[in-house]
Specification:
This protein is of the alpha+beta class and 624 residues long. It contains 23 helices and 19 strands. The chain has 2 domains: 221 residues, 4-Layer Sandwich (Glutamine Phosphoribosylpyrophosphate, subunit 1, domain 1); 233 residues, HUPs (Rossmann fold, 3-Layer(aba) Sandwich).
């Protein structure tokens, strides 16, 4: 895990200076405290900050030259199948000087050209300069686990792991992307496009690569895609067992490959099914002597609260008891959130949707303080395996929408049982209430907007409508409306403390297998994530397998907003310098006062958080 930055000038008489690229690299020093390097050659400059994970020797230094010196690379991420690729390339005559996965990328490019990305299973963002073709090659992993931002004009292309590196050398600060502000304030959506809150600063899309020649001509290509099956198959129990075991076998193999490291590896543990499965598999691998990077005893990191509704410690305790792992626990507070908000904003670079971000922040801090450099977690399971409770209703709606009413009722009765039928009907009513609240929230947000702002952007706003089929909705959650923003949060939070976060549920092979499974292997018998629960029998504690509630990195935000943070939020609204351009501030203040006193039951803290955090973000990045 590292930080990368670069400048590519399109004018031969305007070479890049080492001072410029050094300034970019310095802006992301936190991403790589172990080493730094720059490469400057005429119109190209590459900068690198290294967090040493694999091959800690100087042989892993970057920028790294290719086998014949004609290519140079800066790279952030991990290629989990690099040993297999190294063996394949060695059989083709390639000779290696280091033990790093970085060098494998260079040789793969020499062998396959830009198609090399199709051979990589991992998380990555890299820039490769080809001196012979005078061409820059930028690439990003399939789900965008690793970030890559860019800004270009007629003169040059800037690119980096973080926006602040671009801002460090831009002659003028980019203007605000007002459409994204509108989408965020009215719908609460983030990271749903390849734009950022800084107009002109873009993200290279996941599963894409970009080629840029010396004249500045660019070509962006998608190199991977997937589709989610809409099949509902009434399979015999033997087939269900076989497919569940096949799924869990791929998952366990993914966890094993994600443990490759020359520095200590630990795990995030919320007490939920996903992170508990990761911890349980690692525990088994330790006993099988297949987890040297973990050590004799696994270390886990959890956010906990002395708050009955959010307290997951009984579940964490059960996992620790079953695995023998060592548990590190942090207890986030409202005062801590207030104190850390400026740093959170600076590292995240764009607004976020709630205080749960702070819980993850403290987990990453704890990992740093306890000397664990790499953390595995369960990100990506909910989106693939229908882990959110909304999918109970969406699944039945999918059956009925596709003229399968008889099968819809049959599925409900056969696989949910009468109790689950009633639960589903209750969830339908609950969903209608939730949708009513959401509609009311969106309507109120629009009412709070200045008329000119609302009229300018309402027609082009994103539409959060239900997909025609459930498979499309699952894919949308994975690629637009859920997973991308969670991955952004995790990358920025982990790298703030020079930690590397890994996500085994997003292994390419596992994702492709899950995408092809029938929907009722994901939600069945009233259980979300059915194939995981069944495949993990005798591996994950039964108490965890039987959990139906879902908390995650939650905080007591509602309580914080009505008590410990209410004065800070009120003051932010009163002293706002940015929001008044877009918001009718007296109306917002009145609604917040009513919320604090419990007079707005259909509004929750996240509604007001959006306005609060946008002002605080603007104070950090726009108004300075």
């Amino acid at each position: 895990m590292c930080g990368i930055a670069g400048i590519f000038s399109f004018h031969q008489n305007a070479p890049v200076t080492s001072a410029q690229i050094q300034k970019m690299a310095d802006a992301i020093r936190h991403r790589g405290p172990d080493d730094e390097g720059i490469y400057v050659n005429g119109n190209i400059a590459l900068g690198h900050r290294r967090l040493a994970i694999i091959d800690l020797s100087p042989d892993g230094h970057q920028p790294m030259a290719g086998p014949d010196g004609s290519t140079w690379i800066i790279y952030n991420g991990e290629i989990y199948n690099y040993l297999e690729l190294r063996a394949e390339l060695s059989a083709k005559g390639h000779q290696f000087k280091s033990q790093s996965d970085t060098e494998v990328i260079l040789h793969a490019y020499q062998e396959y050209g830009p198609d090399c990305v199709r051979h990589f299973n991992g998380m990555f963002a890299f820039a490769l300069w080809d001196t012979r073709q005078h061409r820059l090659f930028l690439a990003r992993d399939r789900f965008g686990v690793k970030p890559l931002y860019f800004y270009r004009n007629a003169h040059h292309l800037l690119f980096a792991s973080e926006i602040k590196a671009l801002l460090a050398v831009m002659e003028t600060r980019p203007s605000l992307h007002q459409q994204l502000v509108y989408d965020f304030l009215t719908l609460g959506v983030l990271d749903h496009t390849n734009d950022t809150f800084f107009a002109g600063v873009h993200k290279l899309a996941p599963a894409h690569y970009m080629l840029v020649d010396a004249a500045g001509r660019e070509q962006i290509n998608r190199y991977w895609d997937f589709e989610v099956s809409n099949e509902v198959a009434l399979l015999p129990d033997k087939a269900l067992a076989e497919k569940s075991q096949a799924f869990f076998g791929l998952f366990a193999e993914s966890v094993r490959s994600h443990l490759i490291s020359d520095v200590p590896v630990g795990s995030c543990l919320s007490g939920g099914l996903d992170s508990s499965a990761v911890v349980a598999v690692i525990s088994r691998l330790i006993h099988e002597h297949k987890a040297a990077s973990v050590g004799a005893r696994q270390q886990t990191f959890s956010a906990c609260y002395n708050h009955s509704r959010l307290d997951e410690q009984p579940f964490i305790d059960r996992v620790i008891e079953a695995t023998g792992a060592f548990s590190h626990r942090v207890f986030p507070t409202a005062d801590g959130f207030k104190k850390n908000l400026p740093q959170l904003l600076w590292h995240q670079e764009e607004p976020f949707t709630g205080t749960s971000m702070y819980a993850q922040w403290e987990v990453m801090r704890s990992a740093r303080d306890n000397g664990v450099t790499v953390l595995l977690d369960g990100q990506g399971a909910d989106e693939q395996l229908l882990g959110y409770r909304k999918f109970y209703v969406f699944y039945v709606q999918h059956l009925l929408r596709n003229d399968r009413r008889w099968l819809g009722m049959r599925e409900m009765l056969k696989h949910f049982g009468s109790r689950e039928v009633m639960m589903t009907l209750q969830w339908q009513r609950g969903l209608r209430y939730w949708r009513g609240a959401q509609i009311g929230s969106v309507a109120l947000a629009k009412q709070l907007l200045q008329d000119s702002f609302r009229q300018a952007f309402a027609d082009s706003a994103v539409r959060l409508t239900a997909a025609d089929d459930l498979g499309a909705r699952i894919k949308a959650d994975m690629t637009r409306f859920s997973l991308p923003v969670l991955l952004r949060y995790e990358d920025k939070n982990s790298m703030a403390f020079s930690r590397e976060a890994r996500v085994p549920f997003l292994d390419q092979r596992l994702v492709e297998y899950v995408a092809g499974l029938p929907l009722n292997l994901k939600l069945r018998d009233g259980w979300t994530k059915y194939c995981l629960r069944r495949g993990a029998q005798n591996v994950v504690p039964q108490k965890i397998l039987e959990r139906k509630d879902k908390i995650g990195f939650a905080t007591p935000e509602e309580e914080w907003f009505r008590r410990a943070l209410k004065d800070d939020i009120r003051q932010t609204f009163q002293r706002a310098l940015f929001l008044p351009e877009f918001i009718k501030m007296p109306d917002l203040q009145n609604h917040f006062a009513a919320f604090v006193h419990g007079k707005r039951p259909l509004l929750s803290s996240d509604f007001f958080f959006r306005f609060f955090v946008l002002e605080e973000w603007a104070q950090t990045f726009i108004l300075k």
